[in-house]
Write a structure and sequence with these properties.
Blueprint: E1 20-22, E2 42-43, E3 53-64, E4 70-86, H1 92-99, E5 104-107, E6 116-119, E7 130-138, E8 141-152, E9 169-175
Antiparallel strand pairs: 1-2, 1-7, 3-4, 4-9, 5-6, 7-8, 8-9
Length: 177
């Protein structure tokens, strides 16, 4: 029998750790939805209202007999990707995600100046694959998505600056086994 107890939205899980987090390669991944994440997981800030999209893509080859009849399909491709847009373009951890850890220098705020984020982007900063965690919740229902081996695969990093919309970093991750 259908029950709404089996329905959940993609609402972000509240709390102090954020809901979309990235760590450096080699950081342990959680094995359940309640274990506290290691301090190495850095909050990526707000995600745009479009949310997080996970896509599973497959391609198949059709095998036919000599009469042209389809007799079998074999899978020739399989891929998983995650797409989202990060709203906090003034967040140092978010900048490191988008431009590469080595390309970003964050200078903490002083009594005379705010936090400074310097980006020396050359286009060749591909960091190693990273573990990611996405946490969602609705009431007492918690769903934690763990992507232990994700590579930044954003092909178009267009950031639009206008007086009426927030600047956003588009992000696409390719997920590996």
């Amino acid at each position: 029998m259908p029950t709404n107890k089996n329905v959940i939205t993609g609402s972000p899980k509240g709390g102090t750790t954020g809901y979309l987090l990235r760590a450096v390669a080699g950081t342990a991944t959680p094995t359940d939805e309640k274990t506290t994440l290691a301090a190495a997981y850095k909050d990526q800030g707000y995600v745009s209202e479009d949310g997080v999209e996970r896509a599973i893509t497959k391609a198949y080859e059709t095998i036919r007999d000599m009469g042209g009849n389809e007799v079998l399909k074999t899978r020739s491709e399989h891929g998983v990707s995650v797409k989202f847009s990060l709203l906090e373009t003034l967040n140092g951890d978010t900048a490191k995600t988008v431009y590469g850890d080595a390309a970003v220098t964050v200078t903490p705020a002083t009594s005379t100046a705010g936090t400074k984020i310097a980006v020396a982007y050359k286009g060749d900063e591909i960091d190693s694959n990273s573990p990611w965690v996405l946490e969602t919740a609705l009431g007492g229902k918690i769903k934690r998505y763990v992507f232990p081996n994700a590579q930044l695969a954003t092909e178009d990093q267009t950031v639009t600056l206008t007086g009426k919309d927030a600047a956003m970093f588009p992000v696409e991750l390719t997920l590996y086994p």
